[in-house]
Amino acid sequence: MLSSPEMDAMKARMTAIILRDSEGFFDDPKESEDLQITVRIACEFFAFLQQSNDVPELGEAEYMAGTIRSGLDWFFSIARTGGILTGLKLQSGFGPKLPSTFSELKASYDSVFHQVLESTHSIKAIGLLLSLVQMMFLFMTVYFPSFLSFSSESGSDLAVVTWQWPRNRFGGDSASIITELPAQMRGVFGW
């Protein structure tokens, strides 16, 4: 893991590159905060990938995914900023080939990260920063829980489900209904 002085230096370098010819765009406190948080999380993810030789431990990956998730509002604000900058062409959708393994993600992130640090133009660096954010989102989605399998303890293909809701919106008595769902529907609702 990078030491705190190394991490601070990396964040400062990336921020300086982006601010170099931004013509005061990030002077606004809100815009500055968006940039600082996005750069901080991008650098933390870089350090996380560098210390991971293989697929990371689940707990470490979930912690990093949570860190990425904490920056969502700032990331989207930077994306809106990127959309109005002169000369920056952005893409979205399924166009680019995204990494499909952890080692591909690590190599791709490393390459783009270094392109940011070598960028000679602020606007290009912001676009590359958005590419880093997209790869962080990819990592976050990989560690979001998804269906693997289901096994009923009773062996029945029907499950008894109890639905409860308050009778009134002020938290009065609750009412219940009991219904049976086929096994294939239980997975839809997470049972």
Question: Summary?
Answer:
Helix content is 58%, strand content 9%. By secondary structure, the chain is mainly alpha-helical.
Name the helix and strand elements from N-terminus to C-terminus, one letter apiece: HHHHHHEEH
* Helical segment count: 7
Helical residue percent band:
55-70%
According to DSSP, the number of beta strands is: 2
Radius of gyration: 22 Å
Query: How many domains would you count in the coordinates?
Result: 2
Overall structural class, as computed from helix and strand content, comes to: mainly alpha
Contiguous runs where pLDDT drops below 50 for at least 5 residues: 165-172, 174-179, 185-191
Strand content: 5-15%
Give the terminus-to-terminus CA distance.
39 Å
On the 0-100 scale, what is the average pLDDT? 81
Q: Please list the strands of the largest sheet in the order they lie side by side.
A: 1-2
Major β-sheet profile: 2 strands, antiparallel
Record the SSE blueprint.
Elements: H1 4-19, H2 29-51, H3 58-70, H4 72-84, H5 102-118, H6 122-142, E1 158-166, E2 174-182, H7 183-189
Antiparallel strand pairs: 1-2
Helix pairs in contact: 1-2, 1-6, 2-4, 2-5, 2-6, 3-6, 4-6, 5-6
What key attributes describe this structure?
7 helices; 9% strand; 2 domains; mainly alpha; 2 strands
